[in-house]
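Researcher: I'm preparing a figure for a lab meeting and need a structural model of a single chain. I don't have an experimental structure, so a prediction will have to do for now. The sequence is pasted below. Please return the structure as tokens so I can convert it later.
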Amino acid sequence: MQNNLIRLQVFLSRNGVCSRRKALGLVTGGRVSVNGRPVVEPSTPVDPAKDKICVDGKAVAAKAYTYILFNKPQGCVTTREDRFAEKTVFDLLPAEFRHLVPVGRLDKDTEGLLLLTNDGDLTHRLTHPSFGVDKTYRVKMTGTLEAKDREALEKGVVIEGRRTAPARVQDVRRSGGGTELTITIHEGRKRQVRLMAAAVGRKVIYLQRVAQGPLRLGGLQAGRWRELTGNEIQGLRKIPAGRRFPRVSRGNNPGAAEEKNSGRQSG
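Model: Understood. Here is the structure written out token by token.
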């Protein structure tokens, strides 16, 4: 399928007509037409820029989607409004982006990569557990991370009564009186990295998300944002569902990649 073509069922869901499940019924029920011709196959490819799609005779306009990668600084929250917070991420972004929704969340003391968009289908792909999207963090913690503690983090530790899924721990090194490392997880449990560190007797003193799926924070400065490239958007849409977490590896640190184009709460 060409890059500009999407399935009819997806088009209807993505443009606010209804959920994917209900879209299936609309199409098979003969209520949808493409360029004046009834279509009953939900997987029919359509071009949102060229084809006229109607439901019960009423045209469905293709939404314009926006995708913003923001380097969230410490001290602000990712909710739109919080009467207890001094600042939200929307206070740091142009007013034109206030309609966007954060894809997952970072707590007040965590900084780094935060994607914001009005593309509900892509938001679902990045946050639903069935897709298992990797999230990589740069961490500074107290004390020395012993080999047995590293192994525990990689195999899974019990937090809040439930064991975490396998993780990747890389680039471990001593720094002053503490330890620096990168950790990759694919769950989205609240304050997960901090709780995992606490489970092995350590306290996180600095936490930064540097990657989410194929996206990389790179050299984007704190408090700055940029739009995603077309290739990045396509990469996100190609993330398969149901994949298993990769085996623990000691190489390929995604946090080291530099970004070429600058301009569920798991922290």
